[in-house]
């Protein structure tokens, strides 16, 4: 609250008190000094102290006070003379002055009271204003708080507006995507309708197909029964084929002999070798003999031979193999099969049995292997499963050598021919390779050719100095029929017979020639014993006949190639070879039986 009005009234009172001070000093000598009247702000009037001072003096003081208060006129200077420094008033004047002073004082008090009331009203108004201002201040403070809150709200509003703009952009993007999705939905709905139509079509088609399927299932069951019946018939037909095939081979003879004439180096056919154009089983050797007396003309002597088949110089490898393909087929039927080539050095035995690497010139061995695996694949469709084991051995100087051995020559093991309890011929320490395709067998044949003993002689640049024997053991199982079979395909390339005069062999070559001729002679002895049906057959006289005992002893289908050289100077060896082959062709051995369980 403002104290300004109260302070101004105090100043007025103080000033009045100062105006009274000189009058009091003047009245000290005459009377007791008059105490200044206490001014009381309010309705109460101040009590006047008893004074004995002259009225004129009091009046003068009051007049002076009144003049200083601003509401009274300045008193006129008192008349009279000073006596001894102190003015003395008359009693009548003093009384009048006191009366005036009292009146003036009362007026002044009244004025002061009025002023005090005015001041009180002003104070009340000020207080009311202060209260109002404080209220307004509180309102302003609350408004300031609200404004501060509004400032935070404004920041939030700006953030919200920013989020709103971002969301509007997102909304725009979403709306765009929504429109795209609506378009996609429309296309999907269209496609769905199309698919529904297709589905209804497919369902109707499925119903028809199911009906057809039931019909087909019935037909399949019928066909399965037919297939089973046909399998039985096929198996029976296969068994009948094997029986007839074996019968045909028996009619042809268990030991069959083919003769093959090697072509001349310059081509053509020499005069002393004559082949009938209408008969492919006959061959004639013609020899002109001079007259001993000289009186008669030279005579021509013919040597006629007949074999199962005679191949001329122009016969191809394929044509030769076609004649023995049925014999090779017998190996898969469970029969032991043996095929060997006989003839003098340089007559083409190795070419007939092995041939060259070109397909058209491949020999009997690779073609037989190819046919075996092809036929096994076809029989596999009828439930047969076959396993094949290959081995390759040579007989060099009456010693067995493993042609598939890959170790050091110094550690080469020794081999012996032995018979098992089932009367099968085996070789100890021999390498047996399990094979499953033609390429593996051809790889083994190539390895054997590298290891085989060959040498140059006067009759052949690369003469075989040993007998080579390739064996393929075959085991077949038909689990569905509970049938097993076991057989051996034996392909032999014999070393050529030689005459020392022609081959001009010396040293090791002479020793090799002696061993070769000895083993071939023993082979002739065995063939003769079989032809004469002797009780004792000397198989053990040589390693060759002992190893081929199973092929020559009856339980085998055997084929011999006799190869002859067409040169005139080989006439003697050719004649001997044909005579030996003729003996073999006349030989009758026991009927071969299939090894089946």
UniProtKB/TrEMBL annotation:
Where this protein primarily resides, as one coarse class? Answer: cytoplasm
Locations listed in the record: Cytoplasm, Cytoskeleton
Protein name listed in UniProt: Kinesin-like protein
Record's family? Belongs to the TRAFAC class myosin-kinesin ATPase superfamily. Kinesin family. KIN-14 subfamily.
Q: Which residue intervals define the domain Kinesin motor in the entry?
A: 254-587
Q: GO: which molecular function terms? A: ATP binding; microtubule binding; microtubule motor activity
Which residues does ATP bind? 343-350
What GO cellular component entries does it have? Answer: microtubule
The UniProt regions of compositional bias labelled Low complexity, in chain numbering, are 79-88
Top-level lineage group? Eukaryota
Q: Which residues form a coiled coil?
A: 102-233
